[in-house]
Queue: 2 jobs
Job 1
Amino acid sequence: MSNLFDLLVAGLATGAIYALVAVGFTLLWQTSQTINFAQGEFVMLPAFLMLAAMHVGAPFWLAIILGILLSMILLGLAFKMLLVDPMMRHGVLPLAIATMALAIGIKEAVKQFFSAEASPFPSIVPTGDISVLGHAVSLQSIGVLVVAILAVFGLTTLLNRTSLGHQMQAAAQNPTVARIIGVPVERMILLTFLINAFLVALASLLITPIYLAKFSSGEVLGQAAFIAAIVGGFNQVRGAIAGGLLIGVLDNLAAAYVSTQYRAAVPMIFLIAVILFRPQGLLGRAEERTV
Amino acid sequence: MSGFAKPLKIALGLIVIAGLIVIPMNFNRYGLFILSQWAVMTIAAMGLNLTLGYAGQVSLAQGAFVGIGAYAAAIMTTHGWPLAAAIVVAMALAFAVGWVLGYPALRVQHHYLAFVTLAFSTLAFLVFRNESWLTGGIYGISNIPRPHIFGIATNKPLPFYYVCLASLAIVSLAVWWLIRSPWGRAFMALRENPLRAQSLGIDTRRYTLMAFAIGSALGGVAGALYAPLTQYIDPVPFNLSLSLDLLMMVIVGGAGFYFGPFLGAMIAVLLPEWLRFTEGYYLMLYAIAVMGLLIWSPTGILGILDRYMAARRTKAASALRAVAKSRLETAQ
């Protein structure tokens, strides 16, 4: 049973990171119908921005702050103004394709300007194990879980408990009415892009020490977050969180109990089943958009 | 205007076809490979254009069907079957699998459908990689023979390029006929307004499945040509990014336009090659070019042309109206 416990903890830790990425993904979908195929690359890039900052001599804490700020400018502001804004009114598909091209662009830029090799990345959590209920659990897993839970908790508080959050929800659910009652819809949309950029930078900070910084590492991550978002419910933040955790655990269990060869198939089959039998997602509501 | 436009179009088409036959004669090996690849990818993109551009069903699995076709052809031809038989089998197999994959399309639409096909694409890749008794696993299948056509060996790059080009021509004619047939019109009705299509007595269930199956079958044909073209296949080229690339080709060229896939495949296959002189930057520039194009015209290259033609037509029409009006006034 100790094996199962370890798997669950590791799964929850990866799942928490998926959840962060998936939440950002659903936020963009809800406020601007952007299906961001570059979301995985969005997670990959901030780690390299931080590495670059450290390369020019910044200490780790400053590199983190610079990395998060830069990613909010590049992946939040610039992404919205240069790519999403001009294409938003032309429907979902062309924009989705443009984000695919963006994914290629980011990958190639990192490969060209940084490195094609995997680089190590310092961890914000000290390495080592502690004992929980008689099991050795790595501090890294716990640190990842704690930071991710705090981030998600902060976000849900923002969305559900503050006026700003209510305005964002209004902008997502019914932009026209929101505009009439005086919600600055444009600013709210921009805000969700900035939040997404913050979340991916955070996810980058948490996951890169585990899997190393590599230009191609966004592919797997983006797909996992994508599946998490759909499984949980494309139109619900709490759905994306549940989906992320579920996919993380499922993936780890599948690797141990199904086969390493087909571990990637388990979340996919699960995804197909969810779409066919409950297309709105496990926690989603049909044809409705809420933040 | 259309009076002289039609012969002009035919002449232009003939010049392009003649160019595609004559100019590559003194291309080197690599140039011919790239051009053959363009022909093969155009076939796959045409299939996707049927599914997506005409019938309006988003599929992220076309790459998997190219893979199914490629493996079918590779397995059969390395066991001594002729390529023609392999193409038929590849087509039938992709058709059958595409038909089954179409069933989710009856239940869910739009992005949900895209996600189902995306999952299918990944599953297909896993099967290619893991079922090594059939597919050779990560080592793939090598020494795939090229066919003899009417006793002529097509081992050299130029003859095989002509095989690809001829296949493209046949597929193009078939698709041309299909979209002008009642079926093609039914597909378009499905895209524009499924409810109205149904109320007009179109069996939307059957046509949705058909759109998927036929589009997938063309993916299978492309795959069956891809295998002898590269003469070696492994699972890597058929992963999700091929499906995404094909989707990009269709959208960039112009979804729902007959010539869209030709242009889209040209951009996706040839543009990176033309940009090779920029060395490490070529894929980056390619990505920027695609984004720039889509920002400029979300309906793709042919969307630009279409808008230009529409503007000219309205201009011409309003000029005619103005003339007619002044005539009316002078007559009074």
Note: The domain at 2-277 of chain A is CATH 1.10.3470 (ABC transporter involved in vitamin B12 uptake, BtuC).
Job 2
Amino acid sequence: MSAGKTTGAAQDVALAIRGLTLSLPRNMERAHAVSDVSFDLRRGQILCIIGESGSGKSVSANAVMGLLPRSIRVTAGEILLEGQNIVGLPPDRLREIRGRVVSMIFQDPLSALNPLMTVGQQVDEVLAVHGVGTPQTRRERTLELLTEVGLPSPELTYQQYPFRLSGGQRQRVMIAMALALEPSILIADEPTTALDVTTQAQILKLIRDIQRRKNMSVMFITHDFGVVSEIADSVVVMEKGQIVEQGSADKVLKTPSHPYTQRLIAAVPHLTGQNRPALDVAASEPVLKVEGLLKTYRSGSAFMGTLREVAAVNEVSFDLAAGQTLGIVGESGSGKSSLGRLLLKLMDSDGGRIVFEGTDIARMPEPEFRRLRPRIQMVFQDPSASLNPRSTIGRILTVGPVAHGTPYAEARDEARALLKRVGLDGGAFDRYPHEFSGGQRQRIGIARALMFRPKLLVADEAVSALDVSIQAQILKLLDDIQRETGVSMVFITHDLRVASQICDEIVVMHKGKIVERGQPSQIFLDPTSAYTRELVAAIPGERPDGGGRIALAG
Amino acid sequence: MRGFLLHRLFQSAVLLVIVSLIGFATLSLMPGGPMAQYGLDPGMTQDDLARLKQQLGLDRPLWVQYFDWAWRLLQGDWGKSFRDGSAVLSVIGRHIFATLLLMGTSTVIAIALGSWIGIRGATHRHSVFDYLATIGAMIALSIPTFWFGLIGIYFFTLKLGWLPAGNMYTIGDGSVLDYAHHLIMPSVVLSLVHVAIWSRYMRTATLDAISQDFVKTARAKGASERRVLMKHVVGNALLPMIALAGVQLPSILTGALVTETVFTWPGMGRLFLDSLSYSDYPVVMGLLIFSAIIVILGNLIADIVIAFVDPRIRLA
């Protein structure tokens, strides 16, 4: 299945994979993690490996590092690192290669750093384990590296523990560690996936700059075509452990030949710059009207003089008409999720009004609000954590309505109808959550929310945990359902591209405040606040002004 | 950190008050009461008993007795033993060394051996060693301590004659070696159950730590497996174990009570049982408070150690 590709002169190729097959333990979904995979990473280039979850992209990276879990074995093929085949090398030889010839950075920079060691110690360790330098020279080199990756006040950062740093800073530390011994190859496994979009833009730029300055070869693993179009020189597309397409970034992105690639690219949400066609809903009172909503988090104690207050939601006001979708967009810590929890009264507000269908629910006591709760429903981010693993889907769907007085038979019929509506067959009713894929579970989550025929649906990062192709399907489903039922939706997301797909209006939040509000076209093409402009500019693969490296086709 | 300490100290004080109240109330409910012992003496008249009762302050309402006792306790007067009239603190003082020696040795054995077994079980998961360790732990956990004690005496004293059956030292010897010789069997027997518990938790904690991303980072750096284990895995695995050490303290203390009885070890456990059968309430109450203080102090120390070792708590 490997696409044939002429290999250049050996010295042009930093890393060559030849017919690599990795076998999975028996009883797994498939026999091979990757099968017969071949590609070249050329010197001084960035090769992006893209695929959805389970495509085998990360496992390939681990194979190159010689870090495969014991249960996965190389059954065929070669991994040529600088001309040397590392398959079957004894552990000691592999250990020498790691960090010196090839190094790696990971997805989650918090868990990838040892919480009990200072940043300095951890960078220093790379040099120490390879027996480089004296403690004195290692310290100097470490400070040099921390400076190089753009960390503020390296002397101070050297002594910091990881928990004190922001996500972006932690990833910079990881990059500093990876660069310590100037390896010729860097493997980056989804290094920006856990980061905010503005931070992602900075880290991508850092990797790009360092790669150019040191003429490194980078194998960059991602699921995001936006990121690919930002930095890739060439691209390998993987599906279910096989390469379906490879070639230059320009070619793969603009003229994808394999149907899977075409589908993936088509599924990538874009800033359309177009507004959503308005629904025919009789203009009436807004379903939801929020006025001057306040929520302050406190930590420490006033008694000890350590009291800290953070205004998570600060004087937020907006309204939402029937059948409309309002997007709430912001980075981590912007207060968007706190706002969502306030709307559902999962926590109490400190001030302001939440007027739902004419009544202020902000101050309403819980017993009284319980009557209204079915009218406001939520779709959660993690579809596997939000469904009780010990209940059947039928029970998950019917337990709420039955508790609110619906006869079971009626609830059951309704549940079966809804499961069908969200695209699952009737048999789903008697099955358990673990029998479904992530996308199917999110469909169940939506069906559960719809059981009450709510007037308002709050979706908190409802598609963030899903692969792009599934993401597109779920967004389409939400859109259809809204058109059928006229439910109003508050759609909370960190992803402007997703928001632009489904929202009539978007509110941009920053540090607890609304910094901008408008229709998608205005937010993306003509943002008024500096923060929104920064946010839009940071979106990978999108250049509303037309000045991108490689614009995505489609 | 200062606030945390003050908070914990306050909590500990409240806990001590509750423990002492429960202890006091329970003892007053016991049939016969403290005068039962004197009542057995045929030479005692009712008048004598009443006078004695008044002398000891036992004729006052219970809550007055409690406050009187608590107030004296705070001033360092823990009362006098009904048995021989010596101060409770000095009675406890005579027995504390033996108990602390036994508990300390057992704790060291439990932590050292348990950690080693746990870490090795985690790094060699599903190996013969791992299975044997699992089975061994189940056996140690399911058989009572006194039985191990009796079996130990049967084999090592009666059959083999290697180890003494009881007491802390040979009268007339009392060298360090003699103490150590007497200490081996009781401390090993007391630690068995804790080695089992500790090794099971340590195995889980090590497996948790091994699966963390930073371990992969360390390997990606080119660190040797030994360094990865010692420098990255063990440190992070021990963190939750410190709290366990604090929680285990009461069970080591009660285990010591049983072990001391089996091996006629002259510690607080023996003292407790003797005092109880003599209805020597001041000593029983004193022991109760004393062990509560040890346990609370142990947990407090565990918390402080965690806070000190974990920068996320120390610097937050």
Note: The interface with chain B takes residues 65, 67, 91, 95-100, 103-104, 106, 108, 111-117, 125-126, 129-130, 161, 163-164, 174, 177, 300-301, 303-304, 306 of chain A (CB under 8 Å).
